[in-house]
Amino acid sequence: MGYYTPDTVPDALEVLRQGDATIIAGCTDYFPNQGDICAPTKLLDISRVAGLRAVSQTTDGWTIGAATTWSDVINADLPRAFDGLKMAAREVGSVQIQNAGTLVGNLCNASPAADGVPPLLTLGAELEVISLRGSRRVPLVDFITGVRQIDMARDEMVVAIHIPAPENAPRGYFLKLGARKYLVISIAMVSTLVALDAGGRITCARVAVGACSAVARRPGALEVALIGQTVDQLMGDPGIWTRHLAPLAPISDVRGSADYRQEIAGELCKRAVMGAIQ
Amino acid sequence: MTNAIPSDQIGFTLNHTSVSANSPPGERLSETLREQMGQRDVKIGCNAGDCGACTVLVDGDPVCACLTPTHRVAGRQVETLTGLVGYDDSAKALSESFLDQGAAQCGICTPGMIVSAVALLRATPDPDEEQVKDAIGGVLCRCTGYRKIIDAVLQAGTSKVTAGADGSGKVGSGKTGSGKVGSGIRHLDGPAKVRGTLAFGDDVAPPGTLVLKVIRSPFARAAFALGDLDLFVATTDGIKATLTAADVPGDNCFGAIPAFVDQPVFAEHETRFRGEAVAAVIGTPEAMRAFDPESFPVDWHQLASVAEVDAAMANDAPQLHTGRDGNEMCKGFVLCGNVDQALEQADIFVEGHFTTGFVEHGYIEPEAGYATFENGKVTVHACTQAPVMDRDALEAILGLHADQIRIVPTAVGGGFGSKLDISVQPFLALGAMKTGHPVRITYTRRETMQSTTKRHPAEMTVKIGAMKDGRLSGLRFDGVFNTGAYASWGPTVATRVPIHASGPYRIADYRAQARAIHTHNPPSGAFRGFGVPQAAIAQEALFDQLAAKLAMDPLEFRILNALDNHQPTVCGQVFEQGVGIRACLKALRPAWAEHNAKIAEFNAQTTGPLRRGVGIAAGWYGCGNTSLANPSTILAGLRVDGTIVLHQGAMDVGQGANTVIAQIFAQAFGVPVAQLTLLGPDTDITPDAGKTSASRQTFVTGNAARLTGEALRARILSMCNASPEATLEVGPGVVKVLDDGHSHQIDLNKLEPNAMGYVLHAEETYDPPTKPLDHNGQGVPYAQFGYAAHLCVVEVDTALGTVKPLHFSAAHDVGQAINPLLVEGQVQGGIAQGLGMALMEEYLPGRTENLHDYLMPTAGDMPRVETIIVEVPDAHGPYGAKGLGEHVLIPTAPAILNAIHNACGARITRLPATPARVHAAIKGLTI
Predict the structure, then answer these.
(1) Do B1 and A182 touch (CB under 8 A)?
(2) Would you say residue A53 lies in a domain?
(3) ipTM value for the complex
(4) Among B54, B70, B72, B115, which would you mutate to test the A interface (most chain A Cβ atoms within 10 Å of its Cβ)?
């Protein structure tokens, strides 16, 4: 029992070492998961840990602290590679959710429809996971291991997302498909990161598709196929968007059928790549 | 350990005042604010961040209080609506603009809306519409359709927008004037809504009141055995009592329709739907906060169940109720002419099968209330649409006399039909009687979605014929309605559908049947339109197909066949006046021409996947009960001090009865509406004004108010032999009667007050004239119908299957708009519900029992609405007025479906038209 609000990371880790604590930050997933019961519990609130609520530039990239909210990201001055992440942030729930919910919480909740995962996959994000035993860096692609499953021990916590400095000034883009505006869980979503050379040829193409597999995926074959293409060439090859989506394994649920998700994923990829270019 | 915040002294600033809370770890700020700080203006609609009703500002940022641990705000600034309206200029401006625009209907979302808007206006004093939508997009409203809220925020930001910005030129400034009939005055009960002081179902119990929770079936059908409940109570801290069927002193049975009463308060041997109550637990608030229903001693044994009507009608299906063979509860039937012959002789015909699903009412206020038992009398304070029906039901359940039961309705945070049925009332009454203490309950969002009524899913097969000249030649309708586990208002749906399935058209040869079939689902009951919206989907879609086959313009095809005065309806009822459908359809001609032209231009210029389309549909709805008495009574009195008291028993669930009934009475009596004092509803002090359903309050209770006002006026005039044209001035102790230059004074001090303290009073009743229907449904089901026609413009993304409504024009014949501002509000709110039904809403037991899997429209989904108020007066209506509440929803969904077809050629026959279904339908076209 207790509500712990440590000021420092070591203090937070000490609470974790003692066991049975639930880490909370924005609580936008914590409370819905609790249902309507308020049972005695031990909570570790990391929102007051010094330095965790910040978006900062480092020598080799960018760091987003574990208590950083979606609104913080929207308001941060970031290069255009982060446009997709910002677009995703604006599509998270509502202003109320964006003001409370954190990016790291979104990753740790590990929903297949987590809005933060596709843009952070395209940005090559790594998570800094620490405990009193030590610190390690885990690529996001390895951190989320399945539906609601992450590579984090009970005495560990994520303190930051590290994003390497984007090369060639690529531009990020994000598209979310839902059955309504605001407060909507994605049927599918795509985030892209694209750079062109002076001749209009794609030199960097990263594509991540969410809500179409247990964990958001980057269809590598599509990314490879896009390299060197111009907009005109892409317009002349509509099949390119669907040929390379084998890694996706969508399911049917109340939001849409598996067939539908598979069929529209290509269209969303196309629009998200074109959106990043234009 | 360092840095553990002591739970008994969580200090923060609340509305500029320092406070200290004592909350266990993990308590939600919403709970603390409501129960410890008395901030009942912070509303709880979902406890999951899905509705935004609990929005507060923490250090200036809007957040959901239900997602904020109380400990989190230690040392921070928390602001809520009641504080903000006292000191914040934006909040003050918003509270005024919300009243001007009629932006608060039921008022349950209003605190969340205004608090969200305050944050916007502090950062962006002059926002545009998109910024307003972004700011309020996280707050759900089920009443208004958002447009008036958007306009109110724009008005507060710039003072540029005035009431009626969405269309009708009739709407005035939205200020309180004399309130004469036809003036768009503010809601009379609006100020408490915009200041957060109105008390809803969960807002009346004092802190510390015993809390009741219901134990519900986890299975659609299950046998169960209760454990040792005495032991459970004795061994569980804080638990005071349990309730089961054995605790029901009267009949463990209730229902809306006397001949179909079949629903137990607590199931006795077997449950018939997931979420059905089998017991209740009563305990201290502290104990019940942590109480896990899983810990209740009950053993479940899941049994085979039927979810769909086809399975329920199969020979080997489990039977839900004895005496209802084949699980058929009842059927409704209307026959006129010779439909087989007419269809055979028709030059062309179309036919189709249409499917709709369960739709959730989605009011933001879950059922809630509070009851006391003192001196042998039970008093229930709860949200309801039908206080007298609640009392009647409790009489039977509790085995008490009517005078031992008092129903004092709280404000109602939306109803739309579901709060016609009793829900929390028997639990509360039984709990108060058993414990001898006051008891409260608030349904969780999951409970309200699991256990209260839904719109009937429908399977409809329809065939319609026409001659080459466009005249209709026969319509056959066969509908099977999934009525769930218990009757509720299913019989009403079965009765209403065949009467209305013709649409508002002249059809001489007609055969319509609607069957209500039991399944192991929550009871389907009353929901805005009683099955008529489902029937309109089938009929109006097929009308477009008929027009296409005839190469006729869809609007002109409808105008050609529109019902008119002197023509019989399919029930053989002939109106000599008041039929307004043709006027509604004709009113759409300019918008129809304009949007067809615009769309043709757009589609010609667009090369991508976007295609626009326009669709129309019409509807009608009989106001009041079907061929049954449904009287309303209004009482008014004059106190010696000149106070004019209106005993207003018509439940205002946001639609505006408190305002409209008062306007009618004031007009009939001859005083400004601002001079009235309203009392009630309260079964001890207000006569029965019937239930708020069937679009009957403006019509039926309005007539009672008119008659009462006229009677009171006549008494005063007769006291001084004044003429009917005389004017009244009611003041302290005196009534001045000015008549043709003469002034009479009636000294109220000289009159003897009655037991209620009135020196003069009147009480009048109105019951609409109807006649029974025969075995072919022929007769006089309603004294009046109201009429409607909607036009919708949509944009379809043909590659993704998404549909975005861009515009509505809605023509409604209301006879006489008592208050045009409120008419607009009803129209826009109804359209939002129709939009949801068409595009996104489907309740699936066990799967969409929350407001993030069950999607309702947000502020970002509702386009502008042009409201066209058509006034074809009705001889029976007060000042010619007709009902409106259900009509606003009926044409919306078919207009959207017709627009989708117009845009991309896809015909959607299964609702909702989700992106996946629309995509599949489009794909089907191209294969």
Answers:
(1) no
(2) no
(3) 0.97
(4) B72
